[in-house]
Amino acid sequence: MELSPQREDEVVVQILRDQVGIDARSLRAVLRLAALGLVNSAWRNTCVEDWHAEGRLHDGDMLGISSHMSWRLDQLLWRWRSQMGIAPDAQAHSLDEISFDDFRWLGGRIYQWIVNPSRRLPTGVTLRDVARENLPQLENDADEALTAFVYQAEDRGVGFAFRRAAAHGGLACRHWWGHPAWPELVDRFIRALDDPGDPHWGDNGEFRVRLPAEPAAVQDRNSLRRTLLQQLWTLDFGSAQWIVAAGIGYLRNQWPTMTVALPRGTRPILAAVQDMSGSISPEAVVWTRRSRRSWQEQSLTGRQSLSHMSRHNHPHPAGAPADRGAARESQGVVHSSVGTYSSPSSPDRSWSSASASLLSA
Prior knowledge:
361 residues, mainly alpha, 2 domains, two-stranded antiparallel sheet, 2 strands
């Protein structure tokens, strides 16, 4: 069963309202959750997971990097909103006034930031140090995810592209910093730390007993709570590792119930919006990477990828200033397997040029 574009958008709005708990008309909430969704799809669920499995990145590293990237991308999106002349108190429908070229330029900025080999991670190393010879694979994976994101706007409008990314972030990242559910999860985690009988620790608290001694940063509960809520990525490595081992990622709020039953035909839509299996809503039924990949392949048929377009000159959006930190990481140019990208200070004012090393860490 194929959903009409109008019905698909209705389903996404329902997900945001009933499952995630935000108003899809709220520009701030939609952009913040879209940042989580884009980091999840264009970074976390890429070859980066292989690096994690290989031990290049540890659990604590993944926790800090994902939260830091979500914060940075949220900043990027909010600044871009200002560059596009959208007032901070505007509603989300104002996104539909943005041209596809301006939105495509944003996609290029995000892509360039994610794959920039000189980008410094909150762990202190650069992306180049972690990626090694596998940077082209990350470029490939990020390109696929972000090109699909961008071309949704050509078909359905910029507002829909952001709502769908926000729904993905809302569903796939409920245990991430920056999600509306995160403060409550942090409070539950802090309470569990002081209650060996909490169900989180299993029968008779055996899970709690097996944990090593708490690091100093964990022992100070008030400071730990502030850090988890405000700047999770500033935790020291040992404390971040301990928190992951203690199962903060397994805490989940109960899924709210959809007020409108989803027809069978919404399953591939939901599978495309979400990108993980695991703790899911009963109404969401099927969540598979295969469904998401099928949707992406359909979206990209006959279209140029972001990495392809970034080798050609596209108009710089009117009024979008050069990013002040652009030259700090790459001295003006990024070279990679998908092309060479000039910084904003160069004569080439392409749509991707302003992102050569956007958002130095």
